[in-house]
């Protein structure tokens, strides 16, 4: 396996640190728009090679694939670049993985009732081309989406006879401080992506169809495990809701995230001021995207780890009718499948903060399963299309076990 990793930022850097401990691949070409950042990541292992790439150019991706005889392209940049990398991989005859799918566009007349272009629609539109070519595009293979989708497959296969709701619930108790020890606002993940998914109309799957609702709707307090505790969660647009119902029967699918009052207020202000816009505006003779400016002035998520404390939890709350080992229904069941990561641990063992580390470990595991032939497929597929057990076993073998709690 010869991997092209597009993006050497927070998640890309964590990806290289995790993969360096495994032996399933021949080489990883670490490509970034900033050649110095790619070189820094590549210096950590003799199987790594640095390169420069323009992620907005499918031709640039294709050329790198051909030069380095790439078999698998790993997309680790913001989803605005998803389609160029996706198309570049296909043109080169390589398989493809991402952690965030092609972008959505709200319904022009009824954005909080009807779906417009949904997350991943552009990719699923050409699924037949990938299948005909015998190539695999494994989409939504981060932590969220990704691990929760694996949990959904596991729940359907082993825990539930019928599923009422697949409810992704993510929360954390992370705190970032400045040099003086004062708590500051510093997102632990890409601010560009956070703005995108939190201000777009959230999608809900209900009784056989997708519909939308208003941002930050249906607040609920969810009690997260391992000391994180109760966190208020709200609806957020996310890929799980667009992926899970394609492979798993359920009456309802939702994604709720514990954003916190401060972040919700900031997002609302950014929207009111137009600073969430991606269209460029002219400022003193220079054209800039307001959202790019917001992301640029905030601390780089890759750098906040040493000043961050706490844990992050990704998980799936499944309700419905349980089943026994023979597949017989056992009555009502409510189960939370989860993965908790402590920032202190990932910083000490890998030198990367917990949110980007938790995101990066899942595509590394998926690539290992593909390299060994345990996972096989062609077309545009989500994690739900594959057996969950080998994935969860490897997650534990990597030293980061998952948990299960009856609610």
Tell me what the CATH architecture of the largest domain is: 2-Layer Sandwich
Indicate the low-confidence ranges by residue numbers.
none
Helix content: 25-40%
Identify the overall geometry. Answer: globular
Q: Class by helix and strand content?
A: alpha/beta
Alpha carbon gyration radius: 20 Å
Integer average pLDDT: 95
Number of helices: 14
Percent of residues in beta strands? 25-35%
Give me the CATH superfamily of the largest domain.
Dihydrodipicolinate Reductase, domain 2
Just give the CATH class of the largest domain: Alpha Beta
Number of strands: 20
The CATH topology of the largest domain corresponds to: Dihydrodipicolinate Reductase, domain 2
Largest beta-sheet characterization: 9 strands, mixed
Span between N and C termini? 41 Å
Quickly count the domains: 2
Description:
It is a single chain. By secondary structure, the protein is of the alpha/beta class. It folds into 2 domains: 137 residues, NAD(P)-binding Rossmann-like Domain (Rossmann fold, 3-Layer(aba) Sandwich), CATH 3.40.50.720; 218 residues, Dihydrodipicolinate Reductase, domain 2 (2-Layer Sandwich), CATH 3.30.360. It is built from 14 helices and 20 strands. Strands 7, 9, 10, 11, 12, 13, 17, 18 and 20 form a 9-stranded mixed sheet that branches. Strand 1, helix 1 and strand 2 form a beta-alpha-beta unit. Helix 3 packs across helix 4 and helix 13 packs across helix 14. The longest helix has 18 residues. The mean pLDDT is 95.
């Amino acid at each position: 396996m010869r991997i092209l990793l597009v993006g050497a930022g927070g998640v890309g850097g964590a990806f290289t640190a995790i993969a360096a401990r495994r032996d399933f691949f021949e080489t990883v070409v670490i490509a970034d728009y900033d050649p110095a950042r790619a070189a820094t990541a590549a210096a950590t292992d003799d199987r790594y090679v640095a390169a420069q790439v323009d992620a907005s150019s499918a031709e640039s991706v294709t050329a790198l694939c051909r030069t380095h005889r790439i078999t698998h392209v790993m997309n680790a940049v913001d989803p605005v670049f998803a389609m160029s990398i996706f198309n570049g991989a296909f043109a080169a005859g390589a398989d493809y993985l991402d952690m965030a799918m092609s972008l959505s566009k709200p319904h022009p007349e009824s954005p909080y009732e009807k779906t417009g272009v949904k997350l991943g629609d552009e990719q699923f539109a050409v699924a037949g081309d990938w299948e005909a070519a015998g190539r695999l595009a494994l989409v939504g293979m981060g932590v969220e989406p990704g691990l929760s989708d694996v949990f959904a497959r596991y729940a359907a296969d082993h825990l539930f006879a019928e599923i009422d709701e697949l409810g992704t619930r993510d929360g954390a108790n992370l705190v970032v401080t400045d040099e003086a020890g004062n708590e500051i606002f510093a997102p632990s993940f890409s601010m560009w992506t956070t703005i995108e998914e939190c201000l777009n109309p959230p999608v809900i799957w209900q009784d056989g169809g997708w519909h939308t609702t208003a941002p930050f709707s249906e607040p609920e307090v969810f009690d997260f495990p391992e000391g994180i505790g109760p966190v208020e969660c709200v609806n957020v647009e996310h890929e799980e809701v667009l992926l899970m119902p394609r492979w798993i029967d359920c009456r309802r699918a939702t994604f709720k995230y514990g954003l916190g009052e401060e972040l919700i207020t900031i997002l609302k202000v950014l929207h009111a001021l137009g600073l969430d816009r991606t269209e460029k505006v002219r400022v003193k003779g220079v054209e800039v995207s307001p959202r790019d400016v917001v992301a640029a002035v905030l601390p780089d998520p890759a750098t906040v780890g040493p000043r961050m404390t706490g844990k992050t939890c990704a998980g799936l709350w499944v309700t419905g009718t349980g089943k026994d080992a023979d597949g017989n229904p056992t009555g009502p069941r409510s189960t939370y499948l989860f993965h908790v990561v402590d920032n202190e641990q990932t910083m000490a063992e890998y030198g990367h903060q917990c949110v980007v580390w938790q995101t990066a470990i899942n595509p590394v595991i998926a690539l290992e399963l593909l390299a060994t032939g345990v996972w096989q497929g062609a077309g545009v597929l989500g994690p739900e299309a594959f057996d969950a057990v080998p994935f969860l076993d490897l997650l534990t073998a990597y030293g980061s076990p998952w948990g299960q709690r009856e609610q």
